Amino acid sequence: MAKQTEGIHHITAIVGEAQENADFYAGVLGLRLVKKTINFDDPGTYHLYFGNSAGEPGTIITFFPWGNAYKGKIGDGQVGVTTYAVPPNALEFWEKRLAKFGVAVEKVERFGEQYLAFNDPHGLQLELVERAGGKANDWRFGEVTPETAVKGFAGAVLYTSNAEKTAELLQTVMGLQKIGEDGSMLRFRSPAELGNTVDVKLAPVGIGQIGIGTVHHIAWRAKDDKDQLDWKHQIEAYGLGVTPVQDRNYFNAIYFREYGDLLFEIATDPPGFTVDETQEAMGQELMLPKQYEQYRNRLKQDLAPLEIREVD
């Protein structure tokens, strides 16, 4: 049987001011700040991880807050829309909640499902959709309870400069199943209960430009280090260059750019976010990899203050 990824591991985006980012994803959307650390390749920048209460793969969105950097342009070669799953009958709650905070919402339909589409404060395109699959998120914050809380990713909409090749990769290399076509979209599915649907936009929209308000990359799940190396060999055999394994402390990562110009990562499920703090304490302190621990005081001075606060 051909290899098959379980689906989305995480999605990483570039945003503006860190406190605004936290106020929206924790304060408004009710996600948990799972990890407060730094960009290992740019240690003067936060790397913030938000997800469900346990920080499980398929629920994690991560951010590089670039402060006053330039605005990006969403386009081909990027995740155009990040879609979250909420419990059945929760969309009415979310429509009212987003309106409460002045977030403009558009109702759209795709593949027979109703979506609430909106932008975050820095321009990222988001959606909410009701899905029965996937366990409830028991994280409580403000007015958000497990009955309405975001479970994790429903999926993502990929904008590509070569839809045929992107679709081919997802199906023949990543092992996703093509399940339908709806107008300008192809849909693929993985076996996971969360992060399991990926829509490919068939028509190009114009090349994207990286910057604030854009997704940097999407990461797919590998079971462990061996599985990840198997993926590396399979992708190289398909004709794409793959980076060496990068130690990201909470997972190991490899990266490659597919023929539609999207940057893909394959990340291991283990060791997870409890490798350096307990699940109960996750997200409370600035966590650093060993190579940067000696610079902790300097980094804390350079990084803007950040707190998780209720905005209700």
UniProtKB/TrEMBL annotation:
Residue span, VOC domain: 7-131, 152-269
Cross-referenced PROSITE patterns: VOC (PS51819)
Domain of life: Bacteria
Name this polypeptide is given: Glyoxalase family protein
Origin species: Planococcus koreensis
Lineage of source species: Bacteria, Bacillati, Bacillota, Bacilli, Bacillales
